[in-house]
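Incident log, support desk, overnight shift.

02:14 A customer reports that sequence design results differ from what the structure should imply. Their input is reproduced verbatim below. On-call engineer (initials T.W.) acknowledged and began investigating.
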């Protein structure tokens, strides 16, 4: 990790993200850009006053961050649209990671328009670290949510290249067990349905092992959780049971009505799971 961008709205949630970003910069010897965006839909004198106040706040708080003021390469306070400014500075800074605090969900506004966080994820294909906790040391326990897809491959590769897989690793994987109910409905005995379920789980475990080997993780000691429930329920349960410091997920880049009506496991994870989350989107050219 060489360059990262931390976008802050100066809220308490964002303060946790700033501390985490500074800790990562210190840990990896990376350059950190702190960015705050002032809404430009207000009188000019108010914009200038808020920009000055925000810069003073960030400068004064820098000394208390991990690594002190030296952990920050630059502080930018600009007027404009938050999403557009974050995307632009992320591109100009060549950021390998964007760090943000969790956002407050606003019901239908987020569903149909998308939060700043979700729009940033869909902008340029840059991984986004969503910070929900106040810790800032190295991630010691990382949970990979894998569905053995290109999205999961990108997530694993990104987490590794960012240096976030140096601690303990566990995996949660969900497979569709709807066939069990279909078998029982077709007259199969409970024992037969159970046998098929066990065979399906063994196959899912074998596919997962092959996926990990293909992604250079075969030599790591990794705890596997195979769940026959829905992907979100499997992730939620694994987080509750294992209490990882970081959850890694890949996103599929769905947009518009397709995202609204089909939903997204990653979207729900970002809104409802409370550990830190690394969300890895598809490349911009792969958006649908």
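02:41 Re-run completed on a clean worker. Output:
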């Amino acid at each position: 990790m060489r360059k990262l961008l931390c976008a802050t709205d100066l809220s308490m949630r964002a303060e946790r993200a700033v501390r985490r970003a500074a800790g990562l910069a210190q840990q990896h010897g990376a350059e950190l850009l702190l960015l705050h965006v002032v809404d430009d839909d207000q009188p000019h004198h108010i914009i200038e006053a808020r920009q000055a106040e925000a810069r003073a706040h960030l400068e004064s708080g820098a000394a208390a961050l991990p690594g002190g003021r030296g952990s920050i390469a630059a502080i930018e306070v600009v007027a404009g649209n938050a999403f557009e400014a974050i995307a632009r500075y992320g591109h100009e800074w060549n950021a390998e990671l964007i760090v943000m605090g969790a956002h407050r969900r606003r019901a239908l506004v987020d569903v149909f328009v998308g939060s700043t966080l979700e729009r940033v994820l869909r902008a340029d294909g840059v991984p986004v670290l969503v910070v929900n906790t106040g810790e800032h040391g190295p991630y010691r326990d990382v949970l990979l949510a894998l569905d053995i897809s290109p999205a999961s491959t990108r997530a694993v590769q990104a987490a590794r290249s960012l240096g976030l897989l140096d601690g303990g690793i566990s995996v949660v994987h969900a497979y569709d067990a709807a066939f069990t109910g279909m078998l029982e409905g077709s007259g199969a005995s409970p024992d037969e349905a159970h046998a098929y379920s066990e065979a399906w789980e063994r196959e899912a475990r074998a596919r997962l092992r092959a996926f990990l080997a293909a992604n250079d993780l075969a030599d790591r000691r990794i705890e596997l959780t195979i769940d026959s429930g829905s992907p979100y329920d499997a992730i939620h349960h694994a987080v509750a049971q294992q209490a990882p410091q970081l959850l890694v997920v890949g996103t599929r880049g769905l947009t518009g009505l397709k995202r609204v009506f089909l939903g997204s496991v990653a979207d729900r994870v970002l809104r409802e799971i409370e550990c830190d989350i690394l969300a890895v989107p598809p490349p911009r050219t792969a958006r649908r």
